[in-house]
Structure formats: C-alpha cells, structure tokens
Amino acid sequence: MIAGARLRQKRRITAHEMSFLKGKAPGPIKMTIPSPSVFMLMSYVPGVTDRVYPSRSEFLAEIVEIITHVGMNILTNLIGKASEVDIDFPKVSLQEKAA
What we know:
Oligomer: single chain
Number of helices: 3
Mean pLDDT: 83
Helix content: 40-55%
Strand content: under 5%
Distance between the termini: 76 Å
Structural class: mainly alpha
Shape: elongated
C-alpha cells in the first residue's frame, strides 16, 4: 500500500488478521503489530508520499504516533481486565508460636 495522503487510523491495524485467526485457531491466539519501519519501507514512495510527507522521518513519526495509540489501547484493555480479577486474600494470623 502506498501512502498518497495523510495517514489516519480507520480500523484496528490487525482487524482482518484477527478475525481470520479467531475463525480458524482451535485455542488462544497471539497477534503482533508490525514495526513502524516496516510501514515506512513499504509505503513511502518518492514522487507520491513526499507530496504529503516531505521526509521519511515525518512519515515515520506519523506511523509511530498511530502505533503508540494502538499500544495504549492494548494496555488500557489489559488494565481493565486485570481490575476485574478477584484477589483471594484470606485472613491470616501472624502470632508467634510459644517455644
């Protein structure tokens, strides 16, 4: 995919792959997010992308921002799930035994 306009996230980056895996995998799945440099190398085309992003570093900074938001969403979801976990904390007596 070639970037010919300003980037914006339209859907979850891994939405297509996740729906496929959920339909095929027999158990838990793991999804990775591509490195920002992969997007930059594949999508920055001089003569097209440089009309919107004059340099590769500006383009990379935009990609990093989008992926940072994805990471923050994942972290927020994990914290939300962790807050639903009940922690069993039985009452324990810490009295010393007599010798």
